[in-house]
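Hi everyone,

Forwarding the result from last night's run.
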Amino acid sequence: MKPLAVDMLRAHLLIASLTAVGTEAIVCVALLVLPVSQQFFGSTAFRLLAVAVIVGGVVVTREFAQAAFQIAVKSRHMLPAERCELPVEIGPDCPRRWLVILHLRLTGQPFVLAGH
């Protein structure tokens, strides 16, 4: 696999993992408050719900990252590449820099971090 494809896959798996951890934390708190049987957590409905929440978390995170990318382009905190082979340059003063980097990793675009 190409390094950019590996980075893209890693970014998606990171988001999915963080979404799963957040969901698990919410379920643990819900167990303390709501009377739910343990059989529910082994059911197909719960597993499908868990997969839907994880996929939804990835989609929502991608949308936020894309919005941050578009804002960075409009506010000129980032210089887009003229050709696809050239990396995108991200300015050090970009307020949503981590989301812009996440978007670039999710889409497999090369980038460089500009220094001061």
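The two ends are 33 Å apart (CA to CA).

Cheers,
N.
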